[in-house]
Write a structure and sequence with these properties.
There is one protein chain. The chain is built from 13 helices and no strands. It has 2 domains: 235 residues, no CATH class; 69 residues. The longest helix is centred in the middle third of the chain and has 32 residues. It starts with a helix and ends in a 23-residue tail after the last helix. It is mainly α.
């Protein structure tokens, strides 16, 4: 639980930081790719064990800091009552000493593994023996180096770059046409908007599965392989329909958060909702790809046409939401590039 919560928060924080938001996109793409390759949902919960160390360490540090916080409140109250008294000096010295001891305790708990039970007891004898050991710091350095390498940050970043570039290549033309339509007179704008909307409808239906195919094969050319995606759709049409439904359903509410400008210091909160909504969509997309891969023959025409008739109105509803977004979003026409189902929360920051 600590690990999953930490993964969601870390991915959300990265998603609102320029350049690092490609890490979050790469992670989410890798989730669908891992499930697509194995067919197991649990393989999509990537990095949970590693992140559990960060989550438990953050929770433990927050708890053990409370005595120091309470002492600092007493110090401030004493300053308010009698700023130059001897009692204020005692509270000041005690608070600073308590903060120093708490910081040492947190660092030592993290060095021992960062689990929640390491914050309950400081283990002073173990700390004494650790300080006397000659190779203690080299062991910490090696463990930290191994942990950082295990995060595979360059891999996620490069996958995010390719996924972003591929999605932008697909979305650039219809979004550009819709953008141009907003600058034209009403008559021409309507015709151009219909043309751009039809192109966007075609892209929206295929792009989630093209991105999953890219993450599965690790080949950039895979994001343009529509024939392969259509071939897999014939083998698992209902699974594709379910995955597409969850993808667009959970992406639409995120546009409501764009109506008002979110304060910069709270920008990670909408991003957290973005990650929580998109994560199950990526799991389902990878599952649909894997389900199609395990089947050898196309499904009956009844199931194929049922899935098509289900996907089309959902895609059309999503396109209508995207078309209306420039008139509702704080960012105006630039919201056409804020395709939450396929890109990072604010893709302009990634450019």
């Amino acid at each position: 639980m600590f690990g999953f919560a930490a993964v969601m928060v870390l991915v959300a924080v990265c998603s609102v930081i320029p350049a690092l938001n490609l890490l979050s996109l790469g992670y989410l793409l890798h989730v669908s790719g891992a499930v697509a390759r194995s067919g197991k949902w649990r393989d999509g919960f990537i990095g949970v064990r590693k992140a559990s160390v960060i989550g438990s360490a953050a929770a433990g540090a927050w708890v053990v800091m409370w005595p120091a916080r309470i002492a600092s409140e007493f110090w401030r109250d004493a300053e308010t009552i009698a700023a130059d008294s001897h009692v204020v000096m005692i509270w000041k010295a005690g608070t600073l000493m308590l903060f120093a001891l708490t910081l040492i305790h947190i660092v030592w708990a993290c060095l021992r593994g960062g689990r929640w039970w390491h914050f309950l007891w400081p283990a002073p004898l173990k700390l004494h023996h650790w300080l006397k050991s000659a190779d203690s710091f080299s062991q910490v350095n090696q463990a930290l180096h191994t942990y950082v390498l295990g995060l595979r940050l360059p891999f996620y970043f490069w996958l995010g770059v390719r996924g972003f570039a591929g999605a932008l290549a697909w979305l650039g033309v219809p979004a550009g046409i819709l953008f141009t339509a907003t600058r034209m007179p009403p008559g021409g704008a309507l015709a151009l908007s219909l043309f751009g909307g039809l192109l966007l409808l075609f892209v929206v239906i295929h792009l989630p599965f093209l991105q999953a195919h890219l993450a599965e094969t690790q080949r950039f050319q895979a994001i343009f392989d529509i024939r392969e995606v259509r071939r897999r759709f014939l083998r698992a049409p209902i699974a594709f329909c379910m995955a597409f439904f969850i993808t667009v359903l959970l992406a639409v509410p995120l546009y409501l958060l764009k109506i008002e400008l979110t304060p910069r210091e709270l920008s990670w909160l909408p991003a957290l909702l973005f990650v929580i909504c998109i994560f199950p969509a990526r799991l389902l997309t990878g599952w649909a790809i894997s389900r199609a891969q395990r089947r050898e023959a196309p499904q009956h025409g009844f199931w194929r046409w049922t899935a098509r008739l289900g996907i089309f109105p959902m895609a059309l509803a999503y396109v209508i939401v995207v078309y209306a977004a420039p008139y509702l979003s704080w960012n105006g026409v630039w919201s056409l590039l804020e395709q939450h189902a396929f890109l990072v929360p604010a893709p302009l920051l990634a450019l």
